[in-house]
Amino acid sequence: MSDLDDLLRGPVALAVTRVLIRDLTVQRRNGQPVPPWAPALLDALVRAGGERVDVDRFASETRRGTVGPVLMSETRAPEAADQTGVSVQYVRKLARSGRIRCRRVGRDWLIDVDSLRNVLGRAS
Hints:
Layout: H1 2-7, H2 10-29, H3 38-49, E1 52-53, H4 55-64, E2 71-72, E3 74-76, H5 77-84, H6 88-97, E4 102-105, E5 108-112, H7 113-123
Antiparallel strand pairs: 1-2, 3-5, 4-5
Helix pairs in contact: 2-3, 3-4, 5-6
């Protein structure tokens, strides 16, 4: 079992988490129930990957019959700009234009850094 624990760390755990969330979302859209083990598995994978997940939100959404994107690889716009080497204004412009995955919380933009990196990679 320790071999599996060593394997499912960091980026591998995050990749598996994203695939699981994608598959669960498709499963729900096709009218199939979300398995009862899904929230606990997602929580374990996210902890192993070092990201945050709102397990309570996931659990309540699965009970209601919806599955949204629950993986929180989001950060505020200034931190996203620092991580990617672009200006905060440019990150906010991409957010406002809808070119990156993000959401607005009050006056702050929460940016999906992976989405930002993908857009920046295509731009170069």
